[in-house]
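Large ribosomal subunit protein bL21, pasting as requested.
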Amino acid sequence: MFAVVRTGGKQYRVAAGDKIVVEKLDGEAGSSISFSDILLAGEGSELKSVEGLTVSAEIIAQAKADKVIVFKKKRRHNYRRKNGHRQQHTILKITAIGAAEKKAKAKKADAAPEAAGAEAPAAQA
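C-alpha cells follow.
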C-alpha cells in the first residue's frame, strides 16, 4: 500500500519500510510521529479512501544537508559577498500506513463515557 503525504510544503509518495528526508520536524531520534495530512492512498492501481487514514513514521536522525554557497557580485563596483547555508532536515522511516490511530481514539472515546457514567451515580449518593 502507498500514500502521498504532505509535510513541510512538499509531497512525498511513501510505502511501509521507505526512508525519506523531509524538512526539520520536532522530535528525537527513535521517537515516532504520525501524519494525518494524506492526499492520496492506494494499492497497486486502485485508489482508496483517505478518511481517517494515518501514516506512522519513526525518526532515524536529525541532520543537516550539504552546504549551499551564496555568492553575490556586482562587477566594477568592488562588491562581493560570500555566504553559506546548511538546511536542517529529518530522516524518517515509514513504519505503517493505516487507520490504527482511529481505532485507538475510538477505544478511548468508548472508555470515557463508561468512566463518567460510573462516577455520576456515586456523586448523586
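Note for the archive: The chain is about 20% helix and 55% strand.
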